[in-house]
Structure formats: structure tokens, C-alpha cells
Amino acid sequence: MSTAAAVSTPTTVQKLGAEVAGTFLLVFGVIGAALSAGFGGGEGNLNVGFLGVAFALGLSVVIGAYAFGPLSGGHFNPAVSIGLAVAGRFAWKDVLPYVVAQLVGAILGSTLLLAIFAATNGFDAAASFAGASTGYGVLSPSDSSLVTVLLVEIVATAAFLLVILGVTSSRAAAGFAPLAIGFTLTVIALVAIPLSNGSFNPARSIATAIYGGPDALGQVWLSIVAPIVGAIIAGLVGRILYADKR
């Protein structure tokens, strides 16, 4: 029997488990780096800065896509699942289970980070998680406006989804999708972090906001709505742009 013939289709439990694990990895990596960037800048120059956070985001997705993508497709983001469904690449009936799994993984990631950093002297949980939360005004590193943050989150998520649709299309070179997706996240994060703290992912935003205090919770709607709007736009465009008309 060939190796290809021996590979079975992943079960629903395996798919959802992969989404939990991949989203956990993403949140643990990017929010862990963000908390360190805001808290670890003391002796020894330990602060990774926003460049480090951008790389943590991209690398965590590359690793997760290679490790868990073969099981679930490697969404790790409710906006991705919705955008792929709009584009006709993912079954609508599977969107809700994926979103629930992503939320579970994200909240596990932020909760574990809270437990880790809480044991560090001088750590202010609400202030630190608020500093890692996506938003405008007091939550924006540059005090950006609501309109600015909405636009950057919508446009960045749409660009991200279009890249996903492109590198996973039938015309794309095989094996390089995780790299292209991770590099894209790094690029858009470099643009968005100074403006919005760069989420593009409702699960990541919710998992951070629940520990970030009233400002983070009050603005979390933006981090849910904007990525979903961007994903829907990209899904509609992708249906045309990547249509296979053979």
C-alpha cells in the first residue's frame, strides 16, 4: 500500500482539535510577544518591540499551518473561516464549529499567558492586556481615530484573505502556502500595529480583551466587525479573481 493511500481523512474531532491547537499557538506567540514588548524592556534590553510582535505573528501562523493545516486547513481565525466560506472554499455548516474551536484555543492561550505573567513582579494584568488589545484612541499606540483603525483592519484582513485564496488556489505552487500566508501577516502587522495594534482576528481580539479591562472590552466590537467585513469583501472578490473557468 502506498503512503498516499494510507492517509485517511481527518475526523471532525481532529479538525477541531487542530484549530484549537493552532489558535492557541498563534495567541500564545503573538500576545506573549506583545506582553513582553510592553513589560520586558528593563535591564538586558529584553524588549522585542513591535517588529518582534509582527514576526511572532507571522512565524506562529507558518508553524501552525505546517503542523496543523493538514488536519483542519489551518484557519486559526474566524474571519478566515467566514471569508473562505464566502469564497466557496469552505462549507458554511463547518463555520460555527471552527469559530468555537478558535475561540477556545485563543482564550486558553491568553489565560495561560495571564497565569505566567501574573507571577512576575510589577505585572499589571489589565494594563498589559489593554496594551496588547486592538482599538483606537487610548488603545492605539499612535492614538489613531476610529475611522483609521476600522480602515486598516478591514483593508489588512481583505489583503490577507486574498493572499490565502491565491496561494491555496489550483494554480498556486504546492507547499509554499504557509510561508506566503505567514509573511503576509508579518507585512500587514508592520503596517497596522502602530495604528491599531494589528489583530485581523476576532478570536485573538476577544481572548485579549477579556483580561484588558473596560476600554478593551468596550472596543472589542471593532476587532470583530472589521476583520469579518474585510474577509467578506475578499471572499466576494476571490470568487471572481480565482475562479477556475476550465
TrEMBL record:
Transmembrane region positions? Answer: 20-41, 48-69, 99-119, 146-167, 179-200, 220-242
Q: Which Gene Ontology CC terms are recorded?
A: membrane
Pfam families attached to this UniProt entry: MIP
Q: Tell me how this protein sits in the membrane.
A: Multi-pass membrane protein
Q: Name one GO molecular function term.
A: channel activity
Q: Which Gene3D superfamilies match?
A: Glycerol uptake facilitator protein
Q: Which UniProt keywords apply?
A: Membrane, Transmembrane, Transmembrane helix, Transport
Q: What is its main location?
A: membrane
The family line of this record is: Belongs to the MIP/aquaporin (TC 1.A.8) family.
Q: What's the protein called, per UniProt?
A: Aquaporin Z
- Whose protein is this, by species? Agromyces seonyuensis
